[in-house]
Design a protein that fits this description.
392 residues; Chorismate synthase, AroC fold; 21% strand; five-stranded antiparallel β-sheet; four-stranded antiparallel β-sheet
């Protein structure tokens, strides 16, 4: 079954990704991965790092002649900014007796703790004195690796006409009105249109969301927001299971999205609104149309009893404002215990559109894992045959 492992630091030489369990014969090119990497870097309100990095993946194993071969897929991504950090982030020991080297190390050392980051619990957990050792890995740069792994999962899902996409519904308290497009064509049209703007939102929201970000940038603060992730197409009934808590697909999807940087809450379907309604109002009633069992709504977000029910899977992730901002918060120095303004390192005003791309990658990975669990098979052909048997 699909699993992935990532390594690398924000300003180190690069990122490495191993994706294991993808069946043989799945079409895969570097361009399929680069497309989503580019989407992650787009977004009005992004910071200077996006002008430095132009993420392009190199496939180093697991693919031959444009198709997977069943072995682990190895990917690497270069950090172009590493040329400015070769001493501070060197893998080999450096000469601290050299005044120039020492000066560069001291310039990059971090002891002023940043509220809202992994800084303080990280240095305490690992017994460190330089926050740089924590912030380099806890940086959102790590999500680049997740997007790469998720792009591979999407390639597998596409072979079964399953698509995963996201869009921004709210930024800084402006927006809302989540989409309830009921048909496959409406979902496709929505996601085609949102990729035409740099906030990845519905056209009717664009101007108001952009104005909110401009306002925040002028004020030196940051903004969070809400993204909706949708899986649509031929979603099989029965991905996940009701029999054990750790097999329920809503729990797996929620956990995957909660692991994304700045995500503080996740909803399935109408989410918290269900707690405010009567029982009759939140259920999705059955009907028969053209001899087929249908639903009259999708309040459950395509999941009932821990299993997919064949409807589009609807998830909503709530992202907090980024904790690094020009108007620094008050903090203390880890070593001296003196009061200081928190350390500021290059940051975005708003990264919600990019957060949506990361969330959809994590959702795609979970759905691909559960599809493999249900269908089995070591090759794409075998999985497709099993899918045909399931439909029959």
């Amino acid at each position: 079954m699909l699993r992935f492992l990532t390594a690398g630091e924000s300003h180190g030489p690069g990122l490495s990704i191993i994706v294991e369990g993808i069946p043989a014969e799945v079409p895969l090119l570097a361009a399929d991965i680069d497309r989503d990497l580019a989407r992650r870097q787009v977004g009005f309100g992004r910071g200077g790092r996006m002008t430095i990095e132009k993420d392009r993946v190199t496939i180093r194993g697991g693919v031959r002649h444009g198709k997977t071969i069943g072995s682990p897929i190895a990917l690497t991504l270069e950090n172009r900014d590493f040329k400015n950090w070769e001493v501070a982030m060197a893998v080999e020991p450096v000469d601290r007796d050299d005044p120039e080297v020492l000066e560069q190390l001291q310039a990059k050392a971090v002891t002023r703790l940043r509220p809202g980051h992994a800084d303080y619990p990280g240095v305490i957990k690992y017994g460190l004195s330089d926050v740089r050792n924590i912030l380099e890995r806890s940086s959102a740069r790590e999500t680049t690796s997740r997007v790469a792994a998720g792009a591979i999962a999407k390639q597998l899902l596409r072979q079964f006409n399953i698509h995963v996409h996201s869009h921004v519904t709210e930024i800084g308290g402006v927006g809302g009105g989540e989409s309830e497009a009921p048909t496959l064509r409406q979902w496709k049209d929505l996601f085609t249109s949102i990729e035409q703007n740099d906030l990845r939102c519905r056209a009717d929201l664009y101007d108001s969301l952009r104005e909110r970000i401009v306002e925040a940038a002028k004020g030196g603060y940051t903004l969070g927001g809400v993204v909706e992730v949708v899986a649509y197409g031929d979603i099989p009934i029965g991905l996940g299971s009701h029999v054990h808590y750790d097999r329920r697909i809503d729990g797996l999807l929620a956990g995957a999205l909660m692991s994304v940087h700045t995500v503080k809450a996740v909803e399935v379907g109408i989410g918290t609104e269900a707690a405010r309604q009567t029982g009759a109002a939140v259920q999705d009633e059955f009907a028969v149309a053209d001899g087929e069992i249908r639903r009259t709504s999708n309040h459950a977000g395509g999941i009932e009893g821990g299993m997919t029910n064949g409807q589009p899977v609807l998830l909503r992730a709530y992202l907090k404002p980024l904790p690094t901002m020009r108007n620094a918060l008050q903090s203390v120095d880890l070593l001296s215990k003196e009061a200081f303004e928190a350390h500021y390192e290059r940051s975005d005003t708003c990264a919600v559109p990019a957060g949506g791309v990361v969330c959809e990658a994590m959702a795609a990975i979970v759905l691909a894992q559960e599809l493999q669990r249900k269908l089995g098979g070591d090759s794409l052909g075998e999985m497709l045959r099993h899918r045909g048997d399931l439909k029959a």
